[in-house]
Amino acid sequence: MSFALEAAQVSKAYGTVKALDSLTLNIPRGGVFGILGPNGAGKSTLFRIVLGLVRPTTGETRLLGAPAGDIRALRRIGAVIETPRFLPWLTGRETLRMLALASGEKAPDIEGWLDRVGLTDAADRKVNGYSVGMKQRLALAAALLTKPELLILDEPTSGMDPAGILEMRALMRELADKDGVTIILASHQLDEVQRVCDAVAILDHGKLVAEGRVDQLTAVNERLRLTASPAAKVLEILGDRGQADGDSAVFAAIPRADAPALIRALVKADVAVTEARWIGGDLEKVFLSHTGETDAG
Question: Of the four listed, 20, 102, 108, 187, which is most buried by Cβ atoms within 10 Å?
């Protein structure tokens, strides 16, 4: 397996404070990978190290198989780290033209990227009039100008309204699924991470405390809630795997793979099933169980 990001026993200390503590993490190429953690967990520090902006105290990192800071690898990578800043007197379109020129991109698809990030109508407005969310969109367009293989995003939906968050979620999935871009992102929005990411790593105090596919991590303690009649018949079929929830609903402690067979068995037993939905399997609970924090910053 080839990896987009590799970190081997990486530590970074600022005086007596350890931002990263012997972190080992391998992120495969392809898809969308989320990095979560409380404020100060080391997410931004990890990004700065792999991009060659900060040197680790100990350990090694690689991006796309090359050592951190390798110029040839960096040309294949787009990144937005923390709050983007631009020359305020330039328009959005002028900003992208300037950045394309600086990057050596000879034929940048400026109009295409403005459209994909939703800035076409604001392209000729000066950047100092942009909202925080619009600046995030512009930064994303800038990171995509060179058609990178890997995109690193730190809080990509910061300052966006719900509609903007939905648009960014759709764009990230499109970039991963259709354009083949590997995306690594850190985000406060646990619900958004669960919806857009294929896998995640959770950091706490600079250490890796959990890692895996989102569907596998959230499957712990997940139950199927059935609204059905008669509920007593559902409980009889489930046995010790069933638990009543009021008069007409039942919790079924079964794996997802067993759900189709259970529904068929209920229908065969003349049970009227009006609703079946999975509950309890959310990323927030997984995050809290490993960090004890209420904020994924």
Answer: 20
